[in-house]
Amino acid sequence: MPANTSASWRRGLAAVAALPLLALAATACSYGSQAKDDTSGKTNVAAKGKKLSADTVKIGYFGNLTHGTALVGNQKGFFQKELQGTKAQYSTFNAGPSEIEALNAGSIDIGWIGPSPSVNGYTKSQGKSLRIIGGSASGGVKLVVNPKKIKSLDDVKGKRIATPQLGNTQDVAFLNWVAEKGWKVDANSGKGDVSVVRTDNKITPDAYKGGSIDGAWVPEPTASKLVAEGGKVLLDESDLWPGKKFVITNIIVRQSFLKEHPDVVEAVLRGSVKTNAWINANPDEAKAAANKQLAADTGKALPADVLDPAWKSIRFTDDPLASTLGTEAAHAVKAGLLVKPDLKGIYDLAPLNKVLKAEGKGAVADAGLGVK
């Protein structure tokens, strides 16, 4: 870890590796995923056609709805179609640290992951391990509370609110919201005017049912699981951002793989762009495809009362929303979890913009954080 990264940030983000900075699993960052890490390399579609510069591209993602582009792209074969004779090999992860470790070890080449593990991986390697090459999803994070105990935002004071993990995306977002309310909380212990209870997303619904927490600031589908248990959405994090957009999932690549196999990276990005276009044009079919792949990856599909509201709250986008990554990092600095990092060079959006131009779409920006 570089010298400019604080010990508390290291503890929090090394554990998550989503954002959910702040998450990462991812997500997410366990992002509510209930799957065990799986490096079985399963794929739904056979490789056909001319092989690109690599025999195989190893793609990682979480079994979680905020990674819907990867879920749908795998399930419907969008990535494999663009890769032609190069085989897409998929692995699922339950947390950001293991996906970053897999990327660094060469066990995966490209990954869908939250901004927190992306920042952590980039800064820990002193800018040598990865690049963010595209966007995937925005939104899908909510403050859900027990309506019998919390009836207004001011009622959150003095209550026990869960976040996925110390230093993950949702944890930092909640700490920042608390600070803007004028309340005091020690970021490391979680003690103060609000009790921040770091709880793995997969057990948060049980903690809510058992009464050990009064609410949670969590990503989907955990938020909708809490609503299904009688919780109420008190705040959608999207409402706190300009245009209601902020990055929750982006696409990263090993720098060495990008250098050696730019044609393969472009093919995966074409698949991602086409997947997002299909998702946005066919939301119901896309939702079903994501749930089908989620069932294959985690062993259990989501029920309609969880799937439907969760899916509606996520926006799928090619834009990495780079400016919001910088803002999220600033929130972590403000919370005392991070000494201001140098993120210059974390983005390389040239391959994506090439793909977008070919598709007749406008270019996306790196907010001054792109490669020199």
Please describe the topology of this protein.
Elements: H1 7-16, E1 38-42, E2 56-62, H2 68-76, H3 78-83, E3 87-93, H4 96-105, E4 110-113, H5 115-124, E5 130-139, E6 141-145, E7 160-163, H6 169-180, E8 195-198, H7 204-210, E9 215-219, H8 222-228, E10 232-236, E11 247-254, H9 255-260, H10 262-281, H11 283-298, H12 304-312, E12 314-316, H13 322-334, H14 350-358
Parallel strand pairs: 2-3, 2-4, 7-8, 7-9
Antiparallel strand pairs: 1-3, 4-11, 5-11, 5-12, 6-9, 6-10
Structural commentary:
39% of the residues lie in helices and 18% in strands. It has 14 helices and 12 strands. The chain has helices spanning 7-16, 68-76, 78-83, 96-105, 115-124, 169-180, 204-210, 222-228, 255-260, 262-281, 283-298, 304-312, 322-334, 350-358; strands at 38-42, 56-62, 87-93, 110-113, 130-139, 141-145, 160-163, 195-198, 215-219, 232-236, 247-254, 314-316. Strand 7 (160-163), helix 6 and strand 8 (195-198) form a beta-alpha-beta unit. Helix 2 packs across helix 10 and helix 10 crosses helix 11. The two termini are 23 Å apart. Residues 1-36 have low confidence and may be disordered.
